[in-house]
Amino acid sequence: RGLRPLEQLAREVGTRRADALSALPAAEVPDEARPLVLALNDLLHRLDQAMSAQRAFVADAAHELRTPLAALQIQLQLTERASDDTARQAALGELRAGLQRATHLVQQLLTLARQEPGAGATAKFGPVVLADIARHGLTDHASLADARQIDLGADTLDEDAVVQADPAALRTLIGNLIDNAIRYTPPGGRVDVTVFTDRSSSPASHWLCVSDSGPGIPPDERERVLDRFYRRAGVEQSGSGLGLAIVRSIAERHGASLVLDTSAHGGLKVGLCFAAAGEPRPS
């Protein structure tokens, strides 16, 4: 008789659908087994949240892809209908630009999916010199900055700023920060990358910052721009609305603080605060 509640619980679990993630009844379970049932309910709750987030991500991605794909179809039709070489070259240029935008969006979607918690990505954490990450980002984006007439450079790069991190993820992070800054900064502006150590805190912390002279972001919108696909109204941009969402996801994986502020040039300053190597990394 004492095992009957457990047998009933086992039957309920065994006959559940895979998407049935509501809590298991714990009222009639023996006291000895109640902690196990409560732990299972906590796991079911977290699984339900993860699946809901995944469904929302897929729905958002489908919505965002619909517009550029429809635009590509229209641009292809215009190319086919072009009456002369001049019109055809203009249509091909628009088609090429549309393909680049769609490709960028797909790449960002894949990157974000890989960085999401539970995505199954194998992270290889080890000592990483933040100055090396900064230089990697500067080198990769030099051509884009030149093409957009942006002064891209390093302000200060502390060679002693070493953190426990996944280097591939940090390269993705700095790439998105610099790319985002360049896209939102008008021609003739500047983008600065800084790495420094704050020894006034205990323990010491290392900072990786990217600042620009663009339009900046009002304080009341700074939390929202970290959401997937959020774009500020009235701001011209050619991004996917995913760059800062990717940055936030990577920062969370590393237990780093993400801070948005006004830069010295009136634009946006994005700073990430990491624990120094050797300090415990939040799980």
In short:
The protein contains seven helices and seven strands, in the order αααβααββαββαββ. The protein is an alpha+beta fold and 283 residues long.
Walkthrough of the structure:
- With 283 residues, this protein is of the alpha+beta class.
- The chain has two domains: 1-121; 126-275, Heat Shock Protein 90, CATH 3.30.565.
- Helix content is 48%, strand content 16%.
- The strands form two sheets. It has a five-stranded mixed β-sheet. Strands 1-3 form a two-stranded antiparallel ribbon.
- The two termini are 42 Å apart.
- The mean pLDDT is 82.
Large-scale geometry: flat
Strand order of the largest sheet: 2-4-5-7-6
Overall number of strands = 7
Q: In which range does the helix fraction lie?
A: 40-55%
Beta-sheet strand percentage?
A: 15-25%
Distance between the termini: 42 Å
Q: How many distinct helices?
A: 7
Which topology of the largest domain does CATH recognise?
Heat Shock Protein 90
Instruction: Write the H/E string, N to C.
Output: HHHEHHEEHEEHEE
Q: What is the CA-based Rg, rounded?
A: 24 Å
- As for the number of domains, it is 2
Question: From the 3D coordinates, which CATH architecture of the largest domain would you assign?
Answer: 2-Layer Sandwich
Poorly predicted runs are none
For the record, what CATH class of the largest domain applies?
Answer: Alpha Beta
The main pleated sheet reads as: 5 strands, mixed
Q: Mean pLDDT score, rounded?
A: 82
